[in-house]
Specification:
Blueprint: H1 3-13, H2 28-33, H3 40-55, H4 59-71, H5 75-87, H6 92-110, H7 117-124, H8 130-139, H9 145-167, H10 172-194, H11 206-216
Helix pairs in contact: 1-9, 3-9, 3-10, 4-5, 4-8, 4-9, 6-7, 6-8, 9-10
Amino acid sequence: MLDSSLMQLMWLASPALPIGGFSYSECLEAAVDTARAATESEASVWLVDQLHMTLARSELPAVAQAISAWRADDQPRIAELNAWVLQTRESAELRAQTEQMGKSLLEWLKNHTTATPAQIALLAAQEPTYPIAFALAASATQAPVRECLLAFAFGWAENMMQAAIKAVPLGQSAGQRILSALTAEIPFAVDYALSVSDDTRQAFSPMLAILSSQHEVQYSRLFRS
């Protein structure tokens, strides 16, 4: 992989990317509030499970398939995948998150030369979701799809680690141990995601949907809903 491609992926995975990922806990705050992830070990297990049971089966396959579609200029396929992501958000909170991050990444793309004006116009014509917007940004790097997914998953892991530090709460060393556990599992999650087809891609996670609905009306919250 070219140095320029690697650095662009590192940029996309950085928590400093101004798309607001740091402001969401993806139900972890509700899990902490209901004593399901109230310690370091519980939060670590929770996030590793979330990586394999949701990210690897849903967002990561959508990103992989959208990267191929962007590179092939397959516009119907891009619209189909974006619609699938929207349809599978099981709460208003989860849908609002993917829409807000998708729109923010679209605005970021407008200020860079990685995507063409036609691609940006196509993305803007939809309700851009974060996985599909990320796929456009990653497709322009010319990096292999697997490396693009590793970057997407690592960016998610860093945000979730920071959410655990704030919500449980935990110290920085505990956060690094959680991130270590997640990075050890990410390659396996990515390899599984690459094997997923349209027929096996799924977003069935009822407990997350329940917790997300509870988080929307939770009395005291650190994270957006």
